[in-house]
Structure formats: structure tokens, C-alpha cells
Amino acid sequence: MGGGGGQRDRDGRSPRAGRPAVDLPRQAAYEAIEAVHRDDAYANLVLPGILRDRRLHGRDAAFATELTYGTLRVRGTLDAILTAAAGRDVARIDPQPRDALRLGAYQLLYTRVPAHAAVSSTVDLVRSVAPGATGFANAVLREVAGKDVDTWLTELAPSAETDPIGHAALTYSHPQWIVRAFSEALGGDLGETTRLLIEDNQRPPVHLCVRPGRADAVEVADEVGGAPGAFSPYAVYLPGGAPGELAVLADGRAHVQDEGSQLVAAALTAAELDGTDERWLDLCAGPGGKAGLLGALAAQRGARLTAVEVAEHRANLVSQAVRGLPVTVLTADGRTVGRDPDLPEDTFDRVLVDAPCTGLGSLRRRPESRWRRQPSDLPALTRLQRELLGAALRAVRPGGVVAYVTCSPHVVETHVSVTEAARRSGVPVDFVDARPLLPAGMPGLGDGPTVQLWPHRHGTDAMFLAVLRRG
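Above: the chain's sequence. Below: its structure in C-alpha cell form.
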């Protein structure tokens, strides 16, 4: 597996005598993983450029992508095994050979790459980035290769009976605090928590959002060789790979967006209103996916959307996403409602708060986030969430509705944040049952009034939705 490129060096040239030949797909994966750990980069942002620079296409690009995302996804398990195999904590291994060893161990334990090919290619990679560690890397990888992943986990994982969280964390490669948070959000059901962890480790499909009024989902599905979504009337599932240069994206008929994000944005527009329905507000609009869908729906209903984004570069992305739609983009802090003349109080009919959060609901798509996020991130985030929702409740008119959305199932970011913000808002607020605002027949929506979507139940990111009506 891995295809061609094995007879070229890291710059794509034929190697000079004495220089190691590094397989290009593995080199590309290594560079992406190194950027993630060295620069706090996101793989989905850096990998496409690396593949382009390396001129990798087809099977080679697919192999590099699988190595990158797979290694990042199961890093916790790999590090535990490498620590045991090396006889020293993985944190004490220098960064370059450490990332190469992770890449090699992933191939040995999680792919069909023959052991000799995984070891020799990784040793070549180490020789090119950290020559002094070549012998060490060879010894560690041969130790790793001596057992399959199930045997390693049997030896290293805590007992499922006495430490079920620790067992699940190592077995399914999630930090313990995230496993605990998922379990709490699922009512302590460890069986369902395990199903979620397994689903989190699967490669997610690409979802398109077909913009209403510009195209039809069934027609777009036929055009791109995909399938209409299971729940959102605007969703199309792509059969695989990157959407790349699809015409439906280039001409603004659709954009890439998880089906769960489509569902929670559309739910805001499904809530019944008395009185006017002309002024909509997206208070945290970057990078613009939900604003694009809301803008298209607003165009059909004679409404206008104001999209607010505090970061200028993200506001520019929103402007690109809503081109040609009845949307005004403001570069502003959404918490300035009532102080910014463009964000008056008691004015908007519908308000979306897609609040900044830990992103624990999209770990399938950003696998490195599970290792980057920490419990210490929560206090600042939840304070911001409550302040933004408070601003939204000031912005909405009496009788209008606010949708509070997070891409996280963490109870502190969902139920605690929304109830605390409503309690502190100083305005009368009623919770609207969000379940009827989603398509009929969706399973597993719970007891209401809020809704939590799940990868293992719905095939979406783990989006949370609360809908509030101002009294």
C-alpha cells in the first residue's frame, strides 16, 4: 500500500548517493503531523497544501491522508504503546523521531501495510529527519511489531470492570476527561458511550448543503454522484474524497457543511412567530456555513440576515460565503448588542448563537482536537457562551426566538450554559421544544425541550440545540 514515490527524496528529486529514499506519501503525512504538533496547525488546513506541493494524487494522496488522520486520531493509544516499547515515556523522545515513530506504529497496528515495509520506510524517514535516532527507531518499531494492537491493549489498558473510563480512553484513544464528559451527556450509559467513541474514530463522510432557492438536493446528488441526506432536506452525502473543484461549490449552489449544522440552523427558521419575520441575526457567523444557509432561506421569505463575526479574516470568509444573498456582514463583537448602533436591542425576529466551544462534537473531522483541548479551556469558553446568549436575548424582540447551538455535547457547554444565561438575562424567557423543529421521524432526540445530535445516532456531528422565546 502507498503506491509510488519510493525512489525520490523529500523534495521529490531522485536521491543522491548515500541519501535515504523517503516514500512521498509517508513524507507528506509526516510533514502534516509535524505541523500539527509543532505549530498547532489543523490537519485539514495544512494537508491539502502539502499534497499539492508534493504533486500527490489518487491512491498516493489517499494513503497520505489515511496515515495523517489515522495517526492523529489514535495518538493516545500509540503513545502508550510506544512508551512501553521504548522503555521510556514518549514525551522524552525528541519531536522528529517521535512523530515518525507514531506514523510507523500506526501502520504496524492499524493498517494492512506489511510489517517490513512499515519498519523500513519509517527508519528511512527517521534517517532523513533525525539521523542519530535511526537505530533507536528501528529497535522500537520491531518491538511494536511483535504484538498486534489487541495484545498491546490487553497488556496496557486498565480493567474495564474497575476503571471503565480509563479502559475506554486507552482502547478507543480519547482523553479520559472527554470520555467522562461523553458518558455524562449520555446519562452514564457506557455501552452507548463506547459506540460513540468507535464512531468518533471512523472517517466521516463529506456533507454538502444545497442552498434552497438555488438548487435541489436530489438533482445535486445525481450531479455529483452522491446521495440525498437522511434528515436535512438540503444535505447531500458525497461518496468519498475531497469535494475539490465541484461545480456546485464553485457556482454557489452548495457549500460543505455537516448535516447536523444544517439541521440546527434550519430549526431556527422553523419556529413559529407572531408578528414580523423580516430581521434575522447570526451573532457568531464565522466561517459562514450557517449564514449561507440562513441567507438562502431569508431570500425565499423576504427577510434579511445580519451576520456578525469578531475576527476580520473570518468575517471575510462570511462575506464570500453569503455573496449574492440578502446578508449584511459586520465585523464586530456580538456581545456589544445595545452599544453598537448596528446591533440594537429588542429588534431582531430570529437570532442564532452558534457559540464558540471546545468542538468535542466534531472530533471525527478534527481528530487532533481531542489531544489539544483541556478541561481548563472550559471556564473562559462557558463565560463567553453565556455572554453571547445574553446578548442575543437582548437583541431579539419580545415574541422572537433565539437558537443556542454548540458543536459540543459537554453538559457544561450545553445545559448549564443555556440555563445560566437565561436565568441571568433579566428578560422573560421560555424554552421552546426543539424536537418538532427538526424533520419528522428523526430518532433519538430525547425528552426535550433541547436536542442533542450524535455521530452514532444520527451520523452528524454532536450538535446541541436549545430554542428560547423571549417573553
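The first strand starts at residue 207 and ends at 210.
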